[in-house]
Design a protein that fits this description.
The complex is a heterodimer of chains A (262) and B (224). Chain A is of the alpha+beta class and 262 residues long. Chain A is built from eight helices and seven strands. Chain A has two domains: 111 residues, Ubiquitin-like (UB roll) (Roll), CATH 3.10.20.30; 129 residues, Alpha-helical ferredoxin (Fumarate Reductase Iron-sulfur Protein, Chain B, domain 2), CATH 1.10.1060.10. In chain A, the strands form two sheets. Chain A has a five-stranded mixed beta sheet with strand order 2-1-5-3-4. A two-stranded antiparallel ribbon of chain A has the order 6-7. In chain A, helix 5 runs antiparallel to helix 6 and helix 5 packs across helix 8. Chain A is elongated and about 60 Å long. Chain B has 224 residues and is mainly α. The chains are: A alpha+beta (262), B mainly alpha (224).
Chain lengths: 262, 224
């Protein structure tokens, strides 16, 4: 038989970017242990709507842990108490009857709150944009074994590419630093032969954009790695530091020409 | 999109941390050398005073070394002030509830501990290096008898207490600083990262313990 529980939620409510916002307390009775955390919030919202109240705004899309849209700070931990789990994949069986749950949005100046628990993560998109292009031949698929990639490099590139850009690293960091995200994005191209032509320029531009967005600096607390639903390693941060040093101290600047072909 | 100006390393938060790592390494070297010199207090007045004389007789070499340490300290502090002034704005609204999962007490006290160490350095210089500004009652400064300075300087329990507390902060600062250094300089590797943590912890504890032993030995009457 399936267990149900009665919960008390303390939820951050904020009408918009200029609203001061504050916590509201909601009762969430008869929540099934089989619900995901977001389904629990769906139920709470149905009840709020039925009462003619404004539902709690939160982000979600795929609800299968791969899109990076969802993300709530649940009882002080981004994505909640389970390791390597997104909020949508966190199930209510990890909570107990009578629990009080505090739900907050990601907190960072670079992630302004749009409404309630929804933040604008456009800063991440701008960092990716700043990284620029990759020189690969478009058109028909290349011969599969034409470009050899060492297995450990392919594996590590995949580990880095597992980043879904949810922003939990920023939310967890005591400094609101985006180093783990930037490190993962720089590494997944930088580890592969296809990413080599722009490797050092890309790192410089992404780090410059990261700083321009107002994220904090890294001070090696490693809270990012603990919060990451994809378990991205801080090892990539060491690699980012290494690449940036080489990019700025050793490598020559790529001359940017306007109006070039391609 | 307009092209950003070519960046230099020191413009970036990572570059500022690289400067902190390198200057931190210099300061770590100074701390160890300072400790090894001072530990000669346990070998008697002749040994310590003889060492102090040899050090002073180095003349220009000593002043060059001091200049390197001073420049490193200034750069270390300037970088951290620049980083903290940025990062203070990175999270204007904090969490009502935030649970840290992996960070250490040493990492979380870097800022406060660093400030405490800065104040301690000022006090320490006022205590032993610049005569006439001692805060310990009954302390008589001698330019040549370093051993006597140590004994009379640490006779006062609250002075010793300040030193002991400062060394606890120093030990933690050295631990997190040394461990972070590998990561910041891009030298960290899963193969030895846990070993590096162990070495950083052990050295931090060893330096703090050795530095604490000296004033405590005076208070306990072992060094007299």
């Amino acid at each position: 038989m399936s267990k149900t529980m009665n919960l008390t939620l303390h939820v951050w409510r904020q009408k918009g970017g200029t609203d001061i916002g504050g916590f509201e307390t909601y009762k969430a009775p008869e929540i099934s242990e089989h619900m995901s955390f977001l389904e629990m919030l769906d139920v709470v919202n149905e009840r709020l709507l039925a009462d003619g109240k404004e539902p709690i705004a939160f982000d979600s899309d795929c609800r299968e842990g791969i899109c990076g849209m969802c993300g709530l700070v649940i009882n002080g931990v981004p994505h909640g108490p389970n390791a390597a789990t997104t909020t949508c994949q966190l199930h209510m069986r990890h909570f107990n009857d009578g629990d009080e749950i505090t739900i907050e949005p990601w907190r960072a100046a670079a992630f302004p709150v749009l409404r309630d628990l929804v933040v604008d993560r456009g800063a991440f998109d701008r960092i990716i944009q700043a990284g620029g292009y990759v020189s690969v031949n478009a058109g028909s698929a290349p011969e599969a074994n034409g470009l050899p990639v060492a297995k450990p490099d392919a594996d590590r590139a995949m580990d880095a590419a597992a980043c879904i850009g949810c922003g939990a690293c920023v939310a967890a960091c005591p400094n609101a630093s985006a180093m783990l995200f930037v490190a993962a994005k720089a590494a997944h191209l930088g580890l592969l032969p296809q990413g080599q032509p722009e490797r050092y320029e890309r790192v410089k531009k992404m780090v410059a954009q990261m700083d321009a967005e107002g994220f904090g600096h890294c001070s090696n607390h490693y809270e990012c790695m603990a919060a990451c639903p994809k378990e991205i390693s801080v090892d990539f941060i060491a690699r980012l530091n290494r690449d940036l040093m080489r990019a700025t101290v050793v490598e020559r600047d790529h001359e940017e020409k306007s109006g070039g072909a391609g | 999109m307009s092209m950003a100006k070519a960046i230099t390393l020191s413009d970036t938060t990572i570059g500022k941390k690289v400067v902190m790592a390198v200057t931190g390494l210099v300061l770590y070297g100074f701390v160890v050398a300072h400790m090894l010199g001072n530990l000669q207090v346990f070998m008697g007045p002749e040994q310590l005073n003889g060492y102090a004389k040899k050090l002073h007789d180095l003349g220009p070499v000593l002043y060059a070394a001091r200049a390197v340490v001073l420049v490193s300290l200034v750069l270390h502090v300037v970088m951290v002030v620049q980083l903290l002034s940025r990062t203070a704005a990175a999270r204007p609204i904090g969490y009502r509830l935030k649970k840290n999962q992996t960070t250490t007490y040493a990492a979380l006290t870097m800022k406060f501990g660093g400030l405490a160490l800065m104040l301690f350095i000022v006090y320490h210089l006022a205590h032993f290096t610049f005569p006439g500004v001692s805060m310990a009652a009954g302390y008589k400064h001698s330019a040549t008898d370093v051993y006597a300075n140590v004994v009379s300087g640490f006779k006062v329990p609250w002075v010793t207490a300040i030193y002991v507390v400062a060394q606890l902060f120093l030990g933690m600062h050295l631990y997190h600083g040394a461990f972070s250094l590998f990561q910041t300089l891009g030298l960290s590797h899963p193969r030895y990262v846990e070993k590096a943590r162990f070495v950083a912890q052990t050295l931090g504890i060893a330096v703090a313990a050795a530095n604490i032993a000296m004033p405590v030995a005076v208070v306990a009457g072992i060094v007299k």
